[in-house]
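hiii, so i know i said id send this last week but things got crazy w the move. better late than never?? heres the sequnce for the chain we talked about at the cafe, plus the structure i predicted for it. fair warning i was half asleep when i ran it
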Amino acid sequence: MGVLILNSLGGMGAGLKKLPSLSDRLKAVASLVCGQVVVDVGCDHAYLSIFLAMNGCRRVYATDVRNKPLSRAKINVAKYNLLDRIKLILTDGLCDVPRDVDDVIISGMGGKLIERIILKQDWLKDKDKNLILQPQSFLTQLRENLCLNGYEIENEVPVVEFNKTYCVVNARYCGQPRRLSLEESVVGKLAESDNAYSVEFLRRQYKKYSKILKGLYISNSNEEKIEKYERVCKILSKWK
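okay and structure toks below
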């Protein structure tokens, strides 16, 4: 799957001009959907859910843990006359979500929260469930713990939007727990690609971790922590 950057998504169906406008981050998420029934966890304004329903998804469950965003989502869904295809659910994570979903989208949340949502639901231990995850933080930890719990990362799509970078992780349950090496957890599938956006994402990761390491030196942090970040920076230095 290609990298998404600055309105590069196109050709996803007739009437594209009438679709809600998505950020490049959400376009990357949408590009990984492969089924007919989707759940959009933490749907917020529901523009992604609307986009998917207008591009061939037979049913979309749009969920949120709070009433206010869900009410806003309902208004938007109604404007597009999609209340018959988009079911709005007030729930925590994937609780109360029907099990017939093909694709599970969890985007715009911290990696630790995404991890908790997934590991609470045994019904996701199914090779036919396609997980599309976009963490705002703790990407490395999310990779590690998915694999430790029997999930396999199949693909990753980097997104570069001006001063922000994101990584959309595509995973499925394989039933074979595996401990990642430090390099695998730090660079993921992005190391397998030499396209410009993967390189730019990893370059920015190097800058980020180098800054953290400098802070650790200044604060005279413990040697074990410093050593770990030195190893991380060494791994990422090939993209500096």
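btw The chain has two domains: 16-192, 194-240. thought thatd interest u
miss u guys!!
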